[in-house]
Design brief:
The protein has 142 residues and is mostly helical. Helices cover 65% and strands 8% of the residues. Strands 1-3-2 form a three-stranded antiparallel beta sheet. The chain is globular. The protein starts with a helix and ends with a helix.
Amino acid sequence: MTTSPERQAIAERQLCGLVNGLAQRIAEHVRERAATLGLTASQATALREMSGPMTMRELSERMSCEPSNTTFVVDKLEKLSLIERHPHPTDRRAKHLVLTAEGTALRARLLGLLAVDSPLSGLTPEEQRVLHGLLEQAITAR
């Protein structure tokens, strides 16, 4: 049995609505948790993604934003003494972003807060893996 184009369009619209709704709930969750630490959502996202030293370009990709926006966020985090720019070990043109001790401690607090009542916490680890796989497949499908 084939699906009519109209039914397919409705199903896709509904699925897009669900994905968008989840993205909005996650964004609100990050905003709320960030505010409790005196951070913006963008600053919290940058800290969350700073799992180790990385370049501005790598952080921009992880944050899914333009490098100029990442620079603005990193400048603010640097003024708060949460991130430092160090010379890149192999590329003289690049800087390595490194969390300070204070930044590492704040990141740990943030990760703990983000884990509490996360929009995804209602899913089992297996369900999260399945969802991850399906979303990844949808993103990379062409």
